Structure formats: structure tokens, C-alpha cells
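We were asked to recover a plausible sequence for a given structure. The inputs and outputs are reproduced exactly as logged, with field labels preserved.

PROBLEM: sequence recovery
POSITIONS: 365
GIVEN STRUCTURE:
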């Protein structure tokens, strides 16, 4: 079967859409506070450093995904079980993305529709995309990145023109705010959303110009981080710290306040579309990463054969994982604090260190 390939522009689009994902709509890093935009800036260098580690491992093993070079570096007796541990967090995070999209759609427009029906429709689209392959998915990402930027520009212009922005809500920044921002940045915002880019370790081998993975990815991480910083700063400037902290979806709450000359109102649809696009691409990448690792471990030649099973698992996980949205958010904080850092930072850093030691001392056969 022909190997699917993507180009650097498509990789750039996928990383941008993935990083924006749900982080553009929900409180980033699951943290609140008027200095959260400072936390994003503080976490950005760490996010770039994590990406450089992922890229370094890819450069050393350009034809392997993360589960393959984990076994290569640590040996099959340690590497295989450790690689198997990648799959549950990938599936769980994909299910969380699906749950957040369903919750916003219900609260915004479809309060009479069962969440299971909404989530089922979204997962069908994800399964369909996975069956088409990573090449088709990458071309789709190029198109929707432009759509997302256009909608974002329109929303931002209208919010500013409506006179809702009060940048006094962002200041002053006291010494305690700087310390709180640093604590929020590491590890929470470092991991969500920047560390989640570990999923791209399963996509890098499809890149047709390997040397450009580093430059392309770093630019995508930096640009997405600056965009997220600006968006959350505008949200806080409009809502104030109190309302921002209470809002489940700050961007949606911000847009509902728009009333420009009693003419331009109800831009909620733009936020809903933004979330749907972001969740679709982020969830699809999570599902693809889980499918790629599973296919590698269990010797399945075509990743696309796992599209339906992976989609069904994500759907039912999203439905049964939490009774309501507040519990869902509490679970997210626990998962972000104790489990996700292992997948996104601890294991890649371990692989990096062990590989350097083995390479330095000539321990590879």
C-alpha cells in the first residue's frame, strides 16, 4: 500500500488547529484568573522545548512512530508495555474533547437534543475522516485553518467595535499574580495545550520533507500560543476576572454580550463553529495517534481498519466518563495533574535521555 505523505504547510495547519482545539473556548489549562494570559506566555518556551524533544526523537528515527522507537530505545520487554500505556490517555483525552463539544452545543442551541446523539454525529465524522487517511485529513486542515482565522478576525473586530473591551481588567499585575501565573504555567498550561503535541510523533513519519518538521512545528507552536494568549486576554478584558472564572465557556459568554448598534448580535454561531472545527481536528488527531500506536503494537498493517473501533470507544467513554460537566472538569484537573504529564513530558524526556546515553556510549547494536 502506498505510503501517505503530507507537506510542511499541512503539518503547520494541523498543529495550529490541534493547539487551538478546545483551548480557545474553555479556560486554558483548566485555570482561571485575570493573569492567565501571562501564564500562557510563560508556558510557551516550555511548549517549544517539549516540541524540540519530540522532533529530536523523530530525527533520530525518521521512519518510526513513538511506540516503535520506545521499543528500540528501551528494549521490547520494557518498551512494549510502556507503549501500550499510551493508548488509554489518548483515547480518554479524545473522549474529553467530544464531551466538551457536546456540552457547549447543548447549552447554546440544542438543549432538547440528547448529548449522545450530538456526540454520535461528531464521532461519525471523525471515523469517516480516519478511514480516508492522514493525507486527506491534512488537506482538509489547510482549508479549515483559513476558515477558522477568518471567523476569528470577524469575531474580534465586532467585539472591539462594540466597545466591550476594557483592558483595565488585565491589570495591575502584583508579585503574587506573577507567582500564580508561573504555577499555572508549569505544569498545567505546559501540558494543556502545548504538551499534547506529543500526538504528532505518530504523524511525523508521513512528512515528505523531514528537515522542515522542526522549523514548521516551532512556528506553529509559537503562533498558536500567541493567539491563545491574545484571545484569553480579550475574554478577561471583556468579562472581568469574576465572570471569566465562573464561565464554563468564556469565549461563548464573551460573544453573547455583543450588541453593535442594535444590528449585529447573536454571533454565537461563530463560537459554536469554532469549537466544532477545533474539536473535530483535535479529536481526530488523538484518535489517529491511538490507532497508529495500537496498529503498531498489534501488527495491524492498515491503521484505517481501527477507525470504527477507536471511534466507538471514544464515543462511549465520553458518555459514561462523568455524570455532568462540573464533574467532567474536576476529572480533567486530576488527569491533567497526575496522568497527562507522564505521556506528554516524562516518557519523551526519558526516551531522550536514554537515547543520548546509549548513543554516547555506543550501546546500540
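RECOVERED SEQUENCE:
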Amino acid at each position: 500500500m502506498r505510503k501517505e505523505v503530507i507537506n510542511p504547510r499541512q503539518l503547520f495547519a494541523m498543529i495550529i488547529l490541534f493547539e487551538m482545539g478546545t483551548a480557545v473556548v474553555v479556560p486554558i489549562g483548566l485555570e482561571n484568573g485575570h493573569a492567565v494570559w501571562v501564564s500562557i506566555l510563560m508556558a510557551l518556551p516550555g511548549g517549544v522545548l517539549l516540541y524540540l524533544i519530540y522532533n529530536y526523537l523523530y530525527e533520530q528515527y525518521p521512519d518510526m512512530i513513538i511506540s516503535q522507537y520506545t521499543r528500540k530505545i528501551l528494549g521490547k520487554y520494557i518498551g512494549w508495555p510502556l507503549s501500550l500505556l499510551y493508548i488509554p490517555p489518548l483515547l480518554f483525552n479524545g473522549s474529553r474533547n467530544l464531551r466538551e463539544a457536546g456540552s457547549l452545543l447543548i447549552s447554546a442551541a440544542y438543549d432538547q437534543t440528547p448529548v449522545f446523539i450530538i456526540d454520535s454525529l461528531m464521532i461519525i465524522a471523525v471515523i469517516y475522516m480516519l478511514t480516508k487517511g492522514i493525507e486527506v485529513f491534512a488537506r482538509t486542515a489547510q482549508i479549515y485553518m483559513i476558515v477558522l482565522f477568518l471567523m476569528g478576525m470577524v469575531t474580534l473586530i465586532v467585539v472591539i467595535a462594540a466597545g466591550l473591551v476594557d483592558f483595565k481588567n488585565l491589570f495591575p499585575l502584583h508579585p503574587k499574580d506573577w507567582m500564580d501565573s508561573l504555577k499555572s504555567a508549569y505544569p498545567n498550561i505546559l501540558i494543556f495545550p502545548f504538551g499534547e503535541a506529543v500526538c504528532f510523533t505518530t504523524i511525523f513519519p508521513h512528512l515528505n520533507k523531514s528537515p522542515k518538521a522542526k522549523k514548521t512545528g516551532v512556528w506553529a507552536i509559537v503562533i498558536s500560543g500567541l493567539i491563545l494568549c491574545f484571545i484569553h486576554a480579550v475574554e478577561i478584558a471583556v468579562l472581568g476576572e469574576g465572570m471569566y472564572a465562573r464561565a464554563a465557556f468564556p469565549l461563548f459568554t464573551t460573544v453573547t454580550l455583543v450588541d453593535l448598534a442594535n444590528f449585529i448580535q447573536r454571533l454565537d454561531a461563530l463560537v459554536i463553529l469554532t469549537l466544532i472545527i477545533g474539536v473535530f481536528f483535535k479529536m481526530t488527531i488523538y484518535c489517529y495517534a491511538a490507532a497508529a500506536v495500537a496498529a503498531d503494537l498489534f501488527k495491524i498493517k492498515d491503521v484505517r481498519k481501527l477507525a470504527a473501533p477507536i471511534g466507538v470507544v471514544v464515543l462511549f467513554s465520553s458518555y459514561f466518563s462523568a455524570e455532568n460537566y462540573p464533574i467532567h472538569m474536576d476529572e480533567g484537573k486530576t488527569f491533567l495533574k497526575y496522568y497527562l504529564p507522564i505521556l506528554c513530558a516524562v516518557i519523551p524526556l526519558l526516551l531522550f535521555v536514554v537515547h543520548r546515553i546509549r548513543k554516547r556510549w555506543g550501546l546500540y547494536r
